[in-house]
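Working notes for the structural subgroup meeting. M.R. asked for a predicted model of this chain before we commit to crystallization trials. I am recording the input and output together here so anyone reviewing the notebook later can reproduce the run.

Input as submitted:
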Amino acid sequence: MTDHHLAGVGASAALGASRMRFRTWPVVAVALLGLLGLIVASILAVQRKADIAYAHLDNLNARYREVETRLRRVRADLHLSGILARDYLLDTTTPAADYRSRLVAYRTESDRMLSELEPLLRHSDPTRFDKLRHELNEYWRSYAPLFDGMTVVVDRYGFLRREIVPRRDAVMNISAEIEELNNENLHAQQQAAAERQRELHQYLTSTLAASLALGLAVAIIAVIRIRVLEGRSEQQHSRTQQAEQELRRLSNQLVRTQEEERKNLSRELHDELGQMLTALRMEIGRAERAQAIGSPAFSATMNESKSLVDRMMRMVRDLAMGLRPSMLDDLGLEPALAWQAREFSRRYNVPVDLAVDGDLEKLPDPQRTCVYRVVQEALTNCAKHSAATEIEVKVVRGRTLLDVSVRDNGVGMASTTGHRGLGLTGIKERVKDINGSTSIQTKPGGGTVVHITLPVPAADSSKENLVANSAR
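Returned structure, recorded in token form:
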């Protein structure tokens, strides 16, 4: 029985260990990997957004510088052309062709700058750009009469004031408007860049908050799980210590019980069987003496000897039946239970009502032995503790289950959880060993009911008889 209890404790410990071996590390690993992935993704996303923002700012600054530089060159060409026209009017020695070639160079440079400005300004303000191109072309064409036969100085100065200066001023105004537009575009783009920077800050803030939340969740889960595991470990350690103490106590009690059983058996053999053997030897001696002298007491002595032999046979049979009833194997479970009920009633003068429902002949040997021992132990407990006057034993065979109950009207018990004896523990362990269940209902003054339920295999009992007799 101690081995069964040890197996039960081992199974309980294995169950607790399996619960404690719940795979926590994959959850924590996935959470940590998710946190790491979120951080890496956040860094890459921030880097990408920052690169886009910086590239946009660089493009914006480069465009602004390019527009500003080309407008400045155009304005410079206009100023240089005006200076060239003034020098031409004041200089009467230098041929006009030299001034014309220099003016053409200025115009060529201005047209080149205008061509470079076109992709920069065409999409933003095509109207002003077309107007700038038109005014520039008119400005450069207005110089043609100055070099084509206009000889009177007064006419030249008047032409310069009437034709060239207004057109130059118009071009300068358009250039200023374009520069103002460029500044406006720069300001708008700077605002857009600031908005992107705010979005980047918001993204950083949300990513940091998500990372912190995930990290906090992982930390909380890990701490809670560690606390749970520590609690389970402490509980398991406490249960293990209690199981060890219980095993040690039960082992010591089992040794004492075995010694007590051996002492009782030795007492029975010595006091009863030994005295009967001594009396038989004395009767045989009397018979020998009576036979020697031819006394008529020989026949009475032999009858007394036969009576002693019968008593010894009954005693040996009772001892054997107490250890392992042969009728359980020869006649079956129901006759063995009936004999046990009669013997208990005869010995303790307490009536036992046995009720059997169903066929018990084809039960496997483990189930038959278990039922017999459970009823035997329950009756023994009734005799020792309950002070009952009536006992009812009921055995019901179902298709897949076997129900056994032993009910008495004794004094009952306050609780079964604190019971420290081998009786009820042996019943529970024996039933548990063949996958059965045990329930004990009791209360002070209300009697006790021991109820067990055993599974009944579908196989034929002839096959089950080949099972080892370890349950005996």
